[in-house]
Amino acid sequence: MSRSAPCSICELIHVHEEIVNRVSKEMPDEDALFDLSELFKVFGDSTRIRILYCLFESEMCVCDIATLLNMTQSAISHQLSVLKKSKLVKSRRSGKTVFYALADGHVRAIIDQGMEHIQE
């Protein structure tokens, strides 16, 4: 069944209730959608993307990443904190040095999918 309602663009809209109901059942809840949008915001910074690309190749400390990206250790530490809070990177201590690595394979898959998309 379908229902009609007035619309400012047209006199009548036709709602396809079967489609709306089917899609509605598949939609994640609002909390999950919010969390997903927050995750994608983290990917919205080119410095963080550059850091992730560094970590594709090797586990690295802040000094190494700062040198490679020609940035201050403070700036790198700040961005690593954001990435760690979002569970995109993990850290481990070896003596006085903290090494960072990708949290898991999903991180690389997300970046690879994005890169593939923009290169189409």
Could you give a short description of this structure?
It is built from six helices and five strands. It is an alpha+beta fold and about 120 residues long.
Question: Can you characterise this structure?
Answer:
With 120 residues, this protein is α+β, with helices and mostly antiparallel strands. It is built from 6 helices and 5 strands; from the N terminus they run E-E-H-H-H-E-H-H-E-E-H. Helix 4 (62-69) crosses helix 5. It is elongated and about 65 Å long. It starts with a strand and ends with a helix. The mean pLDDT is 91.
Layout of strands and helices, then pairs:
Layout: E1 2-5, E2 13-16, H1 17-26, H2 30-42, H3 46-57, E3 60-61, H4 62-69, H5 73-85, E4 89-94, E5 97-102, H6 105-118
Antiparallel strand pairs: 1-2, 3-5, 4-5
Helix pairs in contact: 4-5
Provide the residue-averaged pLDDT.
Answer: 91
Q: In whole angstroms, how far apart are the ends?
A: 40 Å
Beta-strand level of the residues, as a percent range? 15-25%
Uncertain parts: none
Helix content: 55-70%
Radius of gyration, whole Å: 22 Å
Mind describing the biggest β-sheet? 3 strands, antiparallel
Shape: elongated
Order of helical and strand elements: EEHHHEHHEEH
User: How many helix segments?
Assistant: 6
Main β-sheet, spatial strand arrangement = 3-5-4
Output the structural class.
alpha+beta
